[in-house]
Amino acid sequence: MGFAATAREDTGFRAVLELADDCLVLGHRLSEWCGHAPTLEEDLALANMGLDLLGQARALYAHAGEIEGKGRGEDDLAFLRRERDYCNCLLVERPNGDFAVTMARQLYFSAFMQPFWRALAASSSDATLAGIAAKAEKEMAYHLRHSGEWVIRLGDGTEESAERMQAAIDELHRYTGEMFLISPARRDAIAAGILPDPETLRPEWERTIATVFAEAGLTAPEVRVPQTGGRDGLHGEDMGHLLAELQFMQRAYPGQTW
Amino acid sequence: MSAPVQTGQTGPVDASGKAADLELARAYDAASTVPDPEVPCVTVADLGILRGVTRDADGRIVVRLTPTYSGCPAVIAIEMAVQTALLEAGVSARVERVISPAWTTDWITKEGREKLRAYGIAPPAGSSGGRRAFFAEDVIACPRCGSSRTTKISEFGSTACKAHYRCDACAEPFDYFKCI
Q1: CB < 8 Å from B in window 142-201 of A
Q2: Which of A31, B67, B74, B125 is the most buried (most CB within 10 A)?
Q3: pTM for the full model?
Q4: Which CATH number among 3.40.640.10, 1.10.260.40, 1.20.1260.10, 1.10.150.530 corresponds to the domain A2-252?
């Protein structure tokens, strides 16, 4: 917990950083599919969604840097922090797995983020953040529909696709609770009217997931031990590998531009 | 080319009808005719991403542009092209990126929609907003033969702003400028 405690001196910065890290890490995961997707159309779709998330991350990092006021820009925050300084939720860093895992992860995330951005755009006291949110919400609507349709198609597909879709749900469901977790930074940001309270979004998220699962013939597993820790900088083993690739150029050639 | 365009575009003529600021008019004309690098049949004004050409408190001309999608890689290219066009027109101006209000396909002008169709890209159907149901299909007319017998191949096409369709009548594949 010590790592995060020092970073929490500035509530607004940390709260925006959590959002930026979610977008960057998931965007990076989707980019790993480039050239590997099951079909050309899906390759394009995954890259497109990754690009949306990367664009959102850039705007959020730039804004976080301004709030922090220490001269750190989007590149400093994306490329020059250590693993423990990243405060993304664990869901987004989960490895791509098979296509079912990637689509389940995208569904869980976008079913939460679309209403989250919508609520933020409508009510945030931070005008810049509300502007970023209004754009992001439209983009997440496409991600939600795309991933939802795939989860339904695969869950309601062949014996093997249904089995693999259910396995993906069984693996990832335990990570979804962290999206609703209220970190100290988030608690202060909610109190300041910057971020919406995620609890108010839970009914819509649950309804979306239940609708998709019902159509797909999938069953949400009972979660006995919810997985959390990302907001405190406590990540899974895979996060180090992700960052090694993400940060390689700036670490090997500091300050390099192209 | 400085015809007034819909939804809050700021042309060179102010609300009181004064058109005395010729430099501002020149800046608007230069900026508004810059083509989109990925969809060169339309200009930044046609797309509604040119949000205004005004003077700031210090009297400096400001050209405001907004990105289509958060991650649109053409943003920097567009800003540079506008900056270059302004320089070539002999106008000293600052290009500013604005993200709010969020761009919507509703801001693409009527003229822009026709240019897209003529270029082979189906313009956005209907207006943005509202969450669509899973597997909901819009009827998108083929930009080449006009048939509405078309099939969506993928909601994500060659650029962030386009989806990929096929016409079942003339068998041509085509891009659809999707609604956001």
Answers
A1: 142, 145-146, 148-149, 152
A2: B67
A3: 0.89
A4: 1.20.1260.10
